[in-house]
Write a structure and sequence with these properties.
The chain is α/β, with parallel strands linked by helices. The protein has twelve helices and 15 strands. The chain folds into two domains: 138 residues, Aspartate Aminotransferase, domain 1, CATH 3.90.1150; 250 residues, Type I PLP-dependent aspartate aminotransferase-like (Major domain) (Aspartate Aminotransferase, domain 2). Strands 4-10-9-8-7-5-6 form a seven-stranded mixed beta sheet, sandwiched between helices. Strands 11-12-15-14 form a four-stranded antiparallel beta sheet, with helices on one face. The protein has a two-stranded antiparallel sheet with strand order 1-3. α8 links the parallel β7 and β8. The two termini are 28 Å apart. The structure holds pyridoxal-5'-phosphate (PLP). The site of pyridoxal-5'-phosphate has 13 residues, from α5 and α6.
Length: 420
């Protein structure tokens, strides 16, 4: 159905006004944005910040090429996991010394979940959301098997299900702060308080929050946390994850992966493991220096950003997308799957559609990159650092065109790639 052209004109004028008034508008120039592309996938892999390539090149040619092993000291490679951790810590309300960077989110989850369970040795339940991201669910199941805990999977559609599980069996509750599919944002402070009231500890996964949604781990009293740095933090493909340990557990937390770099004095080559202070005990082995260098450079963009402005723009972008999707796309069978309530919304919007897979492929071919998530979701991430309101209008207009022209029915869009 062709939407009234006048309405599009009005919306485009409104978007131009919003873009002119946007206090974050200048940040877009600090990223490489491929020509003609509307990128709504920064929640899977963030855009490349300018300046990263030169820093990585320096690390390769000078630090590695010339400095060789001396660069562990002279270029600060050894302290990089804690230094970069502190930079991320500033964005998630974590004090210096309570965040380290290294390994993948999956590894960090295993390490923190076991450490959390060891804080509650007399308890039997490991509770998570049945719709949590697969790696979170798989790792939780393996941790439960390893430690002999009961894995409890809560139905996210039942508003009372969680409360019923927060009883005196609770050892650990682990949740994603923002649901990767529906974009639902949990009230971190309220959920943590409820779990603490039951006597348990909480491990938060910030994969879809860090860099996009305000997070204050100390104010929320979170015990442990992990998160990705290649999503909204723009650290690049395979950028290492971060792990947080609340200062009250700094001398107590007992992570299972006791690698030599988590030792308080690795080069003492002590036959016995003695954990490092604070979050550094989450360090395991030799850090991925080149990836950490890329991430460190990428974080420069966040140096003078007010997270409140990022949040305000994120909500305005998703509000506009939802408004336009409801006005122009419901007739083609789309359903908007994200809470309208700002308090419950992350920085993404999903649209449910029975042909979501080919629709997303056709949309990508038309220059609007979102992604597909099983079983029927077209997912769009909104990165306030680079997106313009005009991009939101264009994205919905292109999607409306893909539906109206039935371009998505082309058989090549039904072929599944390895990564969707
Ligand atoms: C993206 C994501 C991950 C990714 O884990 P990796 O080990 O980095 O592959 C984990 N958990 C959640 C909730 C995610 O969204």
């Amino acid at each position: 159905m062709r939407h009234d052209a006048r309405i599009w004109d009005e919306v485009r004028r409104r978007a131009r006004r919003l873009d002119r008034a946007d206090p974050l508008a200048g940040l877009r120039d600090r990223f490489v944005v491929p020509d003609g592309l509307i990128y709504l996938d920064g929640n899977s892999l963030g855009l490349l910040p300018r300046g990263v390539a030169a820093r990585v090149q320096h690390a390769v040619e000078v630090e590695w090429g010339q400095g060789l092993i001396g660069s562990w000291n002279t270029a600060g490679w050894f302290t990089q996991p804690a230094r970069v951790g502190d930079r991320i810590g500033r964005l998630i309300g974590a004090p210096p010394g309570s965040v380290v960077v290294g390994d993948s989110t999956s590894v960090q989850l295993f390490n923190t979940l076991v450490a959390a369970a060891r804080l509650r040795p007399d308890r039997s339940a490991l509770v998570t959301d049945a719709a949590n991201f697969p790696t979170d669910g798989y790792i939780a199941a393996s941790v439960a098997r390893t430690l002999g805990l009961n894995l409890v999977l809560v139905d996210p559609t039942d508003p009372f299900a969680m409360a019923r599980e927060l009883d005196d069996h609770l050892a650990v509750l682990t949740l994603s702060h923002v649901d990767y599919r529906t974009g639902v944002l949990h009230d971190m402070a309220a959920v943590t308080a409820a779990a603490h009231h039951a006597g348990g500890v909480v491990v938060w996964d910030l994969a879809h929050s860090a860099g996009a949604v305000p997070v204050d781990l100390i104010a929320a009293d979170a015990d442990l946390a992990v998160g990705c740095s290649y999503k909204y933090l723009n650290g690049g493909p395979g950028a290492p994850a971060f792990g947080f340990v609340h200062p009250r557990w700094h001398d107590v937390a007992d992570p299972p992966l006791t690698g030599w770099l988590g030792h308080e004095s690795p080069f003492a080559l002590d036959p016995e493991f003695r954990p490092a202070a604070g979050a550094s005990r989450l360090r395991i082995g030799t850090p991925p220096v080149l990836s950490l260098t890329a991430l460190d450079a990428a974080l420069d963009v966040f140096d003078d950003i007010d997270v409140a402005l990022v949040r305000a723009k994120s909500l305005a972008l998703t509000d506009l997308f939802i408004e336009l999707a409801e006005a122009t796309l419901t007739a083609s069978g789309f359903e908007v799957v994200v809470p309208r309530d700002h308090r419950l919304r992350g920085s993404q919007v999903c649209l449910r559609h029975p042909h979501a897979y080919p629709v997303v492929q056709a949309l990508i071919a038309a220059g609007v990159v979102g992604d597909y998530r099983e079983p029927d979701l077209a997912r769009f991430g909104f990165t306030p650092l680079t997106l313009r309101f005009g991009d939101v209008v264009d994205a919905v207009a292109v999607l409306e065109d893909v539906m109206r022209s039935e371009a998505w029915r082309d058989p090549r869009y039904a072929l599944r790639s390895e990564v969707t």
